[in-house]
Amino acid sequence: MSTSSQFLSRRSFGKLAAGVAAAAAGTVSLGACSPGSGTASANAPLRIMAINHVWSQAIKRRLKRFEDRVGRRVSMTLLTADQLSNSYNVKLNASGTDVDVMMVRALQDQLLFGRNGWLTDLTDRVKGEPAYDWPDFQDAPREVSVTDGKVLSVPVVTERPALYYRKDLVEDLGGPPRTLDDLMEMSLELADRGRNFFGYVGRGQRNGAVSQWSSFLYSFGGDFVVDGKSGIGSPEAVAAYAYYGGLLKRTGPPGATNMSLEQAMPIFAQGKAAFYVDADAIYSNFLDPKISTVGKTVGFAPFPAGPAGARPHNIPSWSLGINRFSLLRDEAWEFVRWASGPEMVAELQAAGIPGARKSAWSDAKTLAAFPAELAETMRINAERGIGYDRPQVLQVGRSRDIVGRPLVAGILGEAVAPVARDANAEFDDFLVRDNRHRES
């Protein structure tokens, strides 16, 4: 798949962030509904619904192997983010049996889908087969796969933040920044905004910036939720808001509060910024001479350490679940076991698709597809990583709007503390109303 297509696939599923939770937040719980009963026809295909993504495209090319293994035809549908969201809402609200395996985002979908009774409990399956080796999955993505003590999905694609930097500009500064203080100092020193060159570029849009800001929050010692209550008004969170806002305000491009991935990424790719923190999955965009001028000078470094150390996120960006109403749940598990097993994860990671298994990350052969510096960056960030990059709530989109408000204030140069105090109270109230711990 071309670099630009890879980026477009990633961009398309970004739209799902505000859509799934908001569209389905009012769904009546289906927890009382029984799983699909009856027997599927021997000729019925195993039906898989997935996002149009490099991982699903790679799996689709290998489906003949699986069909030969199980003796059943497989139908795999690749959809845009909006199509996937709409299909799940329609089919699962109706207890539909016409989808078996579901590609989902554990951090965006799983709490709600679990509350509604849409996902099969996989706990006994993943833990009951020694050869599958559930402990081999990285700790952070594995923990996020569990809701209320049940394994509801299996991670297949992971993502961390990378610090992208210009090697030619930091050579005389001792190399890339190792701490957030270093990042601020170097960004200020290298910025020349009068000539349209920026020290740092990053996401600043209220909702979209939250996921990347999370690593700054954790590295300052904060979190979204602490002991069941909002943590965004804590001194640590306020310091993280002020730091990130100040970084963009003092060294970033104008209009940063409107910048999502699509706006920030090209600024670095076109050689107009010294530093950029964003998903490691987009690295190839900076190596493609068709869209980048920094291919020969771009470097990759682990997330810098803050007062609480370096604490980046390490998330399962996409996972596999099984429709609870499927008539082919055993066959669906066979697919999940095959597609997320040690051999397939190693094979796909060797092709440049980062998986979630420790064994793949410790095997030099599987990392050979990545630039050496990036592979080491990804490995270090994975070891340090926290398994979520947004609040773990039912209505994810709404929560990000609340959490992102002080971010915007900081970028605009407004006093962060009072805005964070107001947002903290609003988020506290939201957590009560979101009510994710209520018994179904």
From TrEMBL:
InterPro entries tied to this protein: Bact_solute-bd_prot1, SBP, TAT_signal
Domain of life according to the entry: Bacteria
Record's signal peptide: 1-23
Keyword terms: Signal
One matching Pfam family: SBP_bac_1
SUPFAM superfamilies with a match to the protein in the record: Periplasmic binding protein-like II
Keyword Signal assigned: yes
Protein name (database record): Sugar ABC transporter substrate-binding protein
Species of provenance: Streptomyces hebeiensis
